[in-house]
Amino acid sequence: MIFIAHGFDVHLYDIKEEQVDEAMKWINDHVTKLEHDKCLRGQLSAVKQLTHVHKARTMAECLDGAVHVQECVFEDLDLKRKVFHEIDQICSDNVVLCSSSSCFLPSKLFEGLKHNSQMIVGHPVNPPYFVPLVEIVPSKWTSQAVIDRTRALLDKVGQKPVTLKKEIEGFIVNRIQYAILNECYRLIDSDVISVADVDKVMTHGLGMRYAFMGPWETAHLNANGMREYFDKYAKGIHDVSMTFGPVPIMEGPTADLIVKEMSQAIPLERLEQRRKWRDERLVELASLKHKASK
């Protein structure tokens, strides 16, 4: 949907043909609804955008003439390597081969493949249509031209790419996310705060600022610049951080408590309804951020 919004032809392939049929119906329904809700990305109408989605019946048909491939199978290292091995046998020498992996290091994904200089991770954040960040993670084999092409393409279709200078476990989004989850877990495990209240800390506190600025700009504005911030708060940050304790394993009574409270707050049968609510709020936030950036 992101690529067709900007007039790119997209060819979808899956080993289960019915998956592509379901995807194309889903795309049709959502693009049409987004246009009705005046939230459709790009300058093309829904009807025009949908002419750019095509069903491929074979891997070779899907790759024929492609300039960018985005692999989106689920997070299974062996499966992803199998897919890239198949692609490696038939792809051209000038196509960018990109994985959506959220955690596997490129060096593990692409080791031993003859086209690995063309291979890179481009990890989107869910749901990518409304949350535009993409982590670009090269391996030691990835050429600079492929890094530059991937970033330029993502910029062109309205995403917000960040480029890692080198690969690292968990990339950036998940490393920061895990640090937050770990401390939230420790605070609940230590009976300092409730599950509901720790979520409020983000939704009514930190999250409101972080929706528009990162942690460094937040700090910069909370003092007379970063130098003063470090002078005033660096020692306190260090001292508090030293009390954090070991990284928790999220199992046992505390995990059971969090599962119970979250299941009560949002029962499993309401997850899809809540995801829809989330997406609608993200559309509103994206619109507000767009207006604020002008």
From TrEMBL:
Keywords: Oxidoreductase. Pfam families: 3HCDH (PF00725), 3HCDH_N (PF02737). One of its GO terms (biological process) is fatty acid metabolic process. One of its GO terms (molecular function) is NAD+ binding. PANTHER family: 3-HYDROXYACYL-COA DEHYDROGENASE FAMILY PROTEIN, LAMBDA-CRYSTALLIN HOMOLOG. Belongs to the 3-hydroxyacyl-CoA dehydrogenase family. This is Lambda-crystallin-like protein.
